[in-house]
Specification:
Blueprint (H helix, E strand, L loop, with lengths): L2 E4 L6 E4 L38 E3 L13 E5 L14 E3 L2 E3 L5 E6 L13 H18 L7 E8 L11 E7 L4 H17 L3 H12 L3 E4 L3 E4 L10 E5 L13 H18 L4 E6 L14 E6 L6 H6 L2 E3 L3 H9 L4
Parallel strand pairs: 2-15
Antiparallel strand pairs: 1-2, 3-4, 4-7, 5-6, 7-9, 8-9, 8-13, 10-11, 11-12, 12-14, 13-14
Helix pairs in contact: 1-4
């Protein structure tokens, strides 16, 4: 029988449609296997086609904006927000607006076109995760910025306009609505129980075990209790941390993230996916009630009229089954 499940953090309801239950092979999402085909502005040697780099990792000490890099950060050529100008908040009756001030950057994760975050050497994945942290901290210095959202669109179906593996960040003068909802709900839970709700989720999932995908000393990957989509996976630090960081040089986080991505590649034939890092906003970066985490969302189902109209999601694969498939995946 189908189940209605409630997300314990923000109270979002999900329909687990067990009668539609699907195995990984039942999903017809387009594979995102890379191939070299035509010109790519993110490949090494084509640096002249991107805006000038903000920062880069250059082991050979080469000059900026040329070959010799292993990772580059550049402004998005078509930014959602721009860094120049003032906020200038205004109103028009009941309608509020402000200038589109912020930043929009692209992290080009590797010079190799056919590589991916799942397949690159572990130390390169650590570089990517460390660069996220460094860019967030750099943008923190801008008093106009309240939040930085790091995200990855992998594959055309997930919103990527270029095949070459990359991620992005957008620095915002406001806190995104969904993050604010998590913050408010987490604060309410903490005020009631004097514990972080994410820490309690970690404790309960480790005791239960059915939805655990993978863990190492520092991090836990789980299929959340009320997932919006099949094979949705959360990665959380086991120790309470409100803002995105890592005490081990990002090696433990890189191991868990790469393993999760390889599990998904193995089960779902290299699916398109999105991931997002949710972290505390700059105004309350260190607190006892919120817990940063990564949400990984394979693109296997479509959002249609019921979802848009109700705010509910329909998921045909229970998270307990998804976690079992992922634990047993051949990688």
């Amino acid at each position: 029988m189908p189940e209605l499940r409630k997300d314990p953090v923000i109270g979002r309801w999900v329909i687990i449609s067990v009668e539609r239950g699907k195995r990984p092979s039942d999903f017809a999402s387009p594979s995102h296997k890379r191939r070299v085909s035509g010109f790519c502005p993110f490949c090494e040697g084509n640096e002249y086609t991107t805006p000038e780099e903000i920062t880069a990792i250059r082991p050979d000490g080469s000059d900026p904006n040329g070959p010799g890099w292993t990772l580059r950060v550049v402004p998005n050529k078509f930014p959602a927000l721009r860094s120049d100008g003032e906020l200038e908040k205004t109103g028009e009756g009941i309608y509020d607006r402000m200038n589109g001030v912020g930043a929009h950057e692209v992290i080009i994760e590797t010079p190799e076109h056919v590589s991916s975050l799942a397949t690159m050497p572990p130390e390169r994945a650590e570089d990517v995760l460390r660069t996220y942290h460094e860019r967030i901290n750099a943008l923190r210095q801008d008093g106009r910025i309240r939040y930085v959202l790091v995200f990855k669109n992998e594959g055309e179906a997930a919103g990527a306009s270029l095949e070459h593996t990359h991620s992005q960040l957008i620095a915002l003068p406001i806190v995104p609505k969904i993050v604010k909802e998590e913050l408010i709900a987490s604060r309410q839970y903490y005020d009631m129980k004097e514990r972080c709700i994410f820490c309690d989720i970690i404790t309960q999932e480790l005791e239960d075990g059915r939805r655990v995908v993978y863990e190492n000393d520092g991090y836990l990957a789980i299929a959340p209790y009320a997932p919006r989509a099949p094979f949705e996976t959360w990665i959380l630090p086991k120790k309470h941390e409100s803002s995105y960081q890592s005490g081990d040089g990002f090696s433990g986080l890189a191991e868990v993230l790469q393993r999760v991505l390889r599990q998904l590649d193995s089960l779902l034939d290299v699916p398109p996916y999105n991931f997002m890092i949710h972290t505390s906003p700059f105004t309350e970066s260190e607190n006892e009630y919120y817990h940063w985490h990564i949400e990984v969302m394979p693109k296997l189902t479509k959002i249609a009229g019921f979802e848009w109209g109700s705010g509910f999601y329909i998921n045909p694969t229970p998270p307990e089954i998804a976690a079992e498939y992922m634990r047993n995946a051949e990688i």
